[in-house]
Amino acid sequence: MFGALNRFISRLDSESPSQSSRNASPYGFQVLRNKNLDISIEPWYDFIIGINGRQVDNPDPNLFATEVRNCAGSQVSLVLWNAKGQRTRTLALPVPTPSPTLGITLQWSPLSVSEDVWHVLDVIPNSPADQAGLLPYGDYIVGTPEGNVHGESGLGEL
């Protein structure tokens, strides 16, 4: 009986991601900088993949900026994908009338640029990580001065 239930649950689990991945774009506007501290957008880790109920599928930043300017005096709705949590969320932001911008710097990027994000869970006292000031549960490793860290073997080479 439990075997049948487990198969049923696993089938449900496997159907949900495949449906969402068929609709998801492999690209989005990666947030490089956020000058507006009033909005909870995290540079490097957040990607804008939707705006006002539509998927962002065009790399032209002018189309995105026009959509934001068209919302002057009201709100723009953004769908953000976060590389840390591998989740999406919707954020409604007011767009000011005098200067209809959000105060963020964007770059069209594949979502895969953030595939190898490593969350620091433990730091051994007096280790090189401790001496470098890494904080458990607070820091993430995305690369080194030489480039991105690819896979667990690349992480072990640090």
Structure description:
The chain is α+β, with helices and mostly antiparallel strands and 158 residues long. It has 4 helices and 10 strands; from the N terminus they run H-E-E-E-H-E-E-E-E-H-E-E-E-H. Strands 1, 2, 3, 4, 5 and 6 form a 6-stranded antiparallel β-sheet that branches. Strand 4 and strand 5 form a beta hairpin. The longest helix has 22 residues. It is elongated and about 55 Å long. It starts with a helix and ends with a helix.
Unreliable runs, pLDDT <50, ≥5 residues?
A: 1-23
How much is the average pLDDT?
Answer: 81
Basic shape:
elongated
* Percentage of residues assigned to helices: 25-40%
Number of helices: 4
> Approximately what portion of the residues adopt beta-strand conformation?
25-35%
User: What separation lies between the terminal Cα atoms?
Assistant: 47 Å
Number of strands: 10
Alpha-beta content class = alpha+beta
Q: Tell me the Rg in angstroms.
A: 19 Å
The SSE string, one letter per element, is HEEEHEEEEHEEEH
Largest sheet: 6 strands, antiparallel
